Amino acid sequence: MAVDPITLEVLTQGLISIVREMRATVMRTAKSVAIYEAKDFSCGLFAPGSQVVAQSNDIGSHVVPMPWSVRAAMAKLGETLAPGDVLLMNDPYAGGTHLNDVTIIVPAFREGRLAFFPAVRAHWPDVGGMVPGSMSGKATEIYQEGIRIPPMKVMEAGRLNAPVLELLLANMRVPEERQGDFDAMLAACRVAEARIQEMLARYGIALVEEAVRLDLDRSEARMRATIASLPDGTYHYEDYLETFPDGRFEPLLVPLALTIAGDRMIADFTGAAPQVPVPVNSTLAVTAGSVFIAVKSVLDPALPLNQGSFRSIEVIAPAGTVLNVERPAPAGSHGEVRKRVIATMVGALSQVTPERVAGDLCRTSFHNLIGGWDPASRREWVHYEWSGGGNGAFREGDGPSAMAPFDWGDLVTVQPSEVLETRFPLLVEESRLRTDSGGAGTTRGGLAMQRRIRLLAAEGRYSLLSDGAVVPAFGVLGGRSGLPVASWVEKADGGVEAFDTPGKVGGHLLRRGDAVVLRSAGGGGYGDPLQRPPAAVAEDVRLGLISPEAAAAFYGVVLTAEGSADLPATEARRTALYAARQPLAAAAATQDSVFEAGSVSRRRLCRLHPADAAARGLTEDLLVEMDTGEAAALRGWIRIDPTVPQGRLPLDPIGLGILKAKPGGAVALRAVQALPA
pTM of the prediction? Predict the structure, then answer.
């Protein structure tokens, strides 16, 4: 059936409009602050083949992995679906993300044929488990993260299975909120169902299906053409997730081999660390979805997203690893795994198309949970807080500060103090940008947010599931790292409590008057900071975005008493900083010689002659980054080795490729350090 271009566009935008109306319905009817105020939910329309065909301003990390959930539901229940059925699920092992992301799927029929699936995925602030908010940095198995819901019919032929829903809600905190969120999500799907029927009645199911096919095909053709414009080859990058077995820090390797072959792309994560009984694992749906998000955002951000964009991309992630978790390991770290996969994609693409990439984003979804029992209201309460972090700098400008990164859509990242103080026994005492948190660069990484929240109830429990507390966001093309994520407790008596496992807390007891301080992560810089215009640095100091000390140490800018850049002194300072860099010469080495095995995974070493380490103030086991200014920085841990020739830096073929270096080429070496406090 032929579809003229105007009708094609009318139908395409009509489907997107349906999703927009779904979003409006959820926001106006949901009960959870995280959903109606902070927009932690997404809507989509899916074809019978489980392909996403329309979305709106939704969260990519929800919508892009959702086809795996739809496929799992279809595999289990597809042959039994009938009008009036409603499916409910949250199982990560069945294509989900983490247990808090609950999905409702409604099959819409026309003329006895399955036409579309409207679906809503929303973050329920609690789904049971060991801590208020369900996400614990100390979970060792998925059963501690909440109740697991396999694909199931919660309504059949229009009739609610009330005992099943009652059973599920009985295992969740604040069940009346969860009921309200369920009703809101179902209402959104019902609205979509009605609008779909109106469209099909007007245009006919055959014409609409043909328009969907053409829309998917043109998205595929556009992405294939974009990939084909890139140089063929295999490009590598590597990053790490953070664990603390027995109180020791152990990084878990996330390696990527990205192959571009004509109009196809293969993202291969073979060699990723095995899954562990710690919440740093996630699912194949999240891993593949993260690859798709990175490719779409970097290479083709202009057009709406649908499944056609991803047909030319293959993702390989071996089962039983942190990137393709299997039962019973915890799977709560979908945000952390997603951002690490995106980081490796950015690192690899920086070698291919550096003008399109940005510095690494804020490393983590920074899941902070505070909850408990409030005697004043005689009810449970759970607050879910994700303070927005800094985005990576890019060629044209500085990274946005305390703002949703590209995998979050229009998610609100600074929740209103008035709403939190009205709904929960909390007082928001401070919300500010953290000075010196953005990675230095020709363009600067976005700043982190620091927030202090004081408990007004008699007691509560604080949990944190995050990453990037040790290994921060990297810069590209000579840009520097952002500030790591952190949190601590300021006690009512004036004392300060730090956590022995940074970024991972489970049910820490708070008393009345204690305050939790949350500091999100800063974004990575873009380009050499000594190339940033001195006037821009002076303006950053005037605005409090960077300190005078950071201006001198990282940007080489000396300020006058009036706060403007002292140009002669700045030129002299920058000349001295250039001279102090002392690059090393890359030396070819084997992979075995530059990697060290841990109890679970392996990590890259930076082997140095003792004189080279001493000259740079680098000590054993210090985290450093190697950089040529040609792509993304490469991280490793110092190993002082007198057998390494002085002035040489051993690098295996993958390391040389990541840095776009050749044996004998100059490589800068610097400690990965926080900017001045």
Answer: 0.95
